[in-house]
Design goal:
Layout (H helix, E strand, L loop, with lengths): L2 H12 L3 H14 L17 H10 L5 H14 L4 E3 L5 E3 L2 H19 L5 H25 L7 E12 L2 E8 L11 E4 L6 E4 L11 E6 L3 H9 L5 E4 L18 E6 L3 H13 L5 E7 L8 H8 L16 E7 L8 E2 L2 H8 L6 E5 L2 H13 L7 E3 L8 H9 L11
The structure holds protoporphyrin IX containing FE.
The site of protoporphyrin IX containing FE (HEM) has 24 residues, from helix 3, helix 5 and helix 6.
Length: 410
């Protein structure tokens, strides 16, 4: 496969911007009008999701092992998207769905590459697409043996911790196996849109999962305002590789730096550490004011719980040092500053694995502050929760922003 030719043509194609995504979907819906109901009605923000991922994956087909693992997983995850038969009944994605998408892709490339679209280039794209589509279909077929296409989860408990923050617990119908630090696609059936949320707990024996949500867009505002006990949600396959590798060097101390509801995956990681032999862990949670520390009590309880395994703290201290910090607070006795500033003050953190999770600005500022203070960048683990990207591709997007130049922002 001529990966260089695929990459070069993709880079040229991306210059077309959102027009190309519009053309792709318009073509897809002409080829297969029945595909229209599978996609959100308002595609203003997300219409490039599938297409940008498609291009990115296809232009990275040279690493066969990584491609196979990624595409099979994506195919397994795609089982949550259902087609419809002629009577309007839901059907799993099948080969013909992939043929529609492949035809729309080739037609779009042809339209926007103009004279650069040669028969040889067409053959390259067709072969690369077929390879990815086959891997996705195989991944879906194999996953059928081990997991449902999606989990149905009943809401068991809803707590509104602030006007704009809600903490809720669900119980999936089958055990949903995820790694602490990962996130799951979640759908509210009335809204028919999927968004990624991170479990705030390590997997529990009873299978229940806690989520933290702050009202920001339509989906999260719906959850914060309208979610009730007894409601049903759907959960897809867990994704994310960065934060869940928190145990890559278990002998090193761990620093967790959280902002807002970015706390959720880091609390799951802290709980997992507590369930093991323990590990010197510092959890810095930042807010603008004390009111932002919506999970303070749970974190204090976690810090007071000894590890399940054999933890030996040399100086008699606890395994978890929980450090709430705020930018300003009337009569606040604790640390003052952003999470990043406070984390740096508590350092140095040279031989420490650092996990950061919060808003994009908080994450950026924290990484800058930590690296300036001497933390080697390779010790810092970050997962992007940008809703407009498929999380496993987000780190690739940071490395190759031209691939994603027309990604919408919520
Ligand atoms: C090689 C082929 C394909 C690739 C690489 C691909 C990739 C992706 C990716 C990365 C996403 C975003 C997932 C997320 O953010 O949760 C996505 C979403 C989606 N894909 Fe695919 N996909 C492919 C084929 C298909 C096919 C054949 C269909 C069905 C006709 C399909 C239907 C969908 C739907 C309905 C969504 C959700 C869109 C949204 O809510 O914005 N995909 N796809």
């Amino acid at each position: 496969m001529d990966v260089a030719a695929l990459r070069q043509s993709w880079a040229q194609f991306c210059v077309a911007g959102p027009e190309a995504a519009k053309y792709f979907y318009a073509t897809l819906f002409v080829i297969a009008p029945e595909a229209r109901t599978m996609f959100p009605t308002n595609m203003q923000y997300q219409q490039d999701k599938l297409l940008s991922a498609l291009g990115h994956i296809i232009t990275h087909v040279d690493d066969e092992r990584e491609l196979t693992a990624f595409a099979q997983r994506l195919g397994a995850d795609h089982r949550r998207f259902r087609g419809e038969d002629q009577q309007g009944r839901p059907v799993p994605l099948a080969e013909w769905h992939y043929i529609w998408v492949g035809q729309a892709l080739l037609a779009t490339l042809e339209r926007f590459l103009g004279p650069r679209w040669t028969p040889a280039l067409r053959a390259e794209w067709a072969a690369a697409y077929e390879l990815v589509a086959r891997l996705m279909l195989t991944g879906a077929a194999e996953a059928e043996r081990t997991s449902p296409p999606y989990w149905e989860a009943e809401v068991q408990r809803v707590q509104r911790r602030r006007a704009d923050v809600c903490v809720f617990t669900v119980r999936p119908n089958y055990l949903c196996d995820y790694l602490p630090g990962q996130s799951l696609p979640v759908q509210v059936p009335q809204l028919r849109m999927w968004r990624y949320l991170s479990p705030a707990n390590a997997p529990r024996a009873d299978g229940t999962i806690e989520f933290h949500v702050r009202a920001a867009g339509r989906f999260s505002t719906h959850l914060v305002r309208k979610l009730r006990e007894g409601d049903q949600l759907l959960l897809g396959l867990p994704v994310g590789v960065a934060l869940s590798s928190y145990d890559r060097s278990p002998q090193l101390p761990l620093l967790l730096v959280a902002g807002g509801t970015g706390l959720a995956p880091l609390r799951a990681v802290a709980e997992a550490v507590q369930q093991g032999p323990g590990r010197a862990t510092t959890l810095v949670v930042g807010g603008k004011t004390p009111d932002d520390l919506y999970d303070d009590q749970a974190l204090r309880e976690l810090a007071a719980t000894p590890p399940a395994g054999s933890w030996r703290s040399g100086a008699g201290g606890g395994w978890l040092r929980y450090v709430p910090t705020v930018e300003s607070g009337w009569q606040w006795q604790g640390e003052v500053g952003t999470a990043g500033q406070t984390a740096v003050r508590l350092g140095p953190w040279r031989d420490t694995d650092v996990l950061v999770c919060g808003s994009p600005e908080m994450t950026r500022e924290t990484i800058t502050a930590l690296t300036v203070s001497g933390v080697p960048p390779e010790r810092i683990l970050v997962e992007s929760y940008d809703q407009s990207l498929y999380p496993p591709l987000a780190s690739a997007a940071a490395a190759a922003p031209q691939d994603f130049s027309w990604t919408g922002v919520r």
